[in-house]
UniProtKB/TrEMBL annotation:
Pfam families: MAM (PF00629). It comes from Rotaria socialis. Residues 8-50 form the MAM domain. GO terms for cellular component: membrane. The lineage of its organism: Eukaryota, Metazoa, Spiralia, Gnathifera, Rotifera. This is MAM domain-containing protein.
């Protein structure tokens, strides 16, 4: 099963965007982060405080 919890796209400016997801399960699970980098300096990706 794949579930997209948070999705950002386009120019989001010069600020961090907060996202929060709570995961609760009695079974093993996997969490993945995926990003596509743009071709210029504006195509940056950052993930912090996981």
């Amino acid at each position: 099963m794949t579930l997209i919890c948070i999705y950002f796209s386009g120019n989001l400016g010069n600020r961090w965007r907060y996202g929060h997801v709570t995961v609760s399960s009695n079974d093993p699970y996997q969490i993945a982060f995926e990003g596509v980098v743009g071709s210029s300096f504006q195509g940056d990706i950052a993930v912090d405080d996981i």
